[in-house]
Amino acid sequence: MSAAKFEQIGQALREGVRFAVLGHVRPDGDALGSQLALGLSLKQLGKDVRIWNEEGMLEKYSFLPNANLLTKPPAEPEDVDVAIALDTAIQNRLGNSLPAVRSAKVWINIDHHPSNPGYGDLVYIDPKSPATGQILFELIKSEKLPIDAAIAENLYVAISTDTGSFQYPNTTARTFEIAAELVRAGVDVGRVSQLTYENYPRRRVELLRDLLGTMRFDANDRVASFSLSLATAKRLGVLPEDNEGLIDHLRAIRGVIVAVFFEELADGKVRVSMRSKSEKVNVCAICEKFGGGGHVLAAGARVRGSLAEVERKILEEVRDVVGRNS
Ligand code: 5GP
Ligand code: MN
């Protein structure tokens, strides 16, 4: 089944001329690495390629090979034949990349979020895959698309970040096989790991210090949460990208089943980020109740209300689910 779907997507990639490779807002390593990897492979096929993300390239991922090719979308739409959404569970999460590709005749949707409804003409969703980067590697191999050291390094970062450095339960033997192939294709593991995990700006650690000050526990220490107000974010000068991974400090506590991170946004909403350590506690289902989505063990939502209100509502639901399932 997957080979036939890859074949259809491969054909569309070979036949198209003008491409836009897109990823979700508030991008992570999987979104940005996947976008660059597929964009570079298409370029090597001689295609006219745009690689757009609402936020452009993040400072912290600017070490990715050919990072400069990933830009913010233009204000005016451009003519493209094919728009490709990567790692994006719902089309709206493409943000302002969406209006820029209005003219696209074919939509390709490649993702690993179980909540992805399958929008688009050519759809490949594999919820078992730990990263969109892993699906792209399989596509590239299966369709004999170009791959070089730069593409390999982008895929490696995509997979490494979405598996929590090959630690999360969705990491399979296949993931390690792919990582090995990427290393053979030219990835310098030590260098890339250092740039990915040991290169944080000081303000990120100052943010962690503040967050730990707000840490609280619920449900007999099975739920841990912390929160970031707009005022604190401003005082510390943090960027949205500084948040990625901080929630892991809560998840790492023995006995904690659910970790929650609340972040007050400027638009009257609160961004809720959730992690679970038990398949029995599905945080995607909790977040879907509040208009969000994601995976069983990692999900999120944007909820209208003040920080205090949203904390109260969400923690009530989390306590309830944890109480019933553990
Ligand atoms: P994070 O907590 O790292 O922002 O997101 C964890 C997972 O939940 C990601 O797979 C992400 O796609 C999903 N997610 C985060 N926020 C939202 C949201 O507002 N809506 C939906 N549908 N998914 C989200
Ligand atoms: Mn992903």
Q: What this model shows, in words?
A:
The protein contains 11 helices and 12 strands. The strands form 2 sheets. It has a 6-stranded parallel beta sheet, covered by helices on one side. It has a 6-stranded mixed beta sheet with strand order 7-8-9-10-12-11. It is 38% helix and 19% strand. The chain starts with a helix and ends with a helix. Helix 2 packs parallel to helix 3 and helix 2 packs antiparallel against helix 4. It folds into 2 domains: 196 residues, inorganic pyrophosphatase (n-terminal core), CATH 3.90.1640.10; 123 residues, Diaminopimelate Epimerase, Chain A, domain 1. The longest helix is centred in the last third of the chain and has 19 residues. The protein is α/β, with parallel strands linked by helices. Strand 1, helix 2 and strand 2 form a beta-alpha-beta unit. Bound molecules: guanosine-5'-monophosphate and manganese (II) ion. Manganese (II) ion binds next to loops.
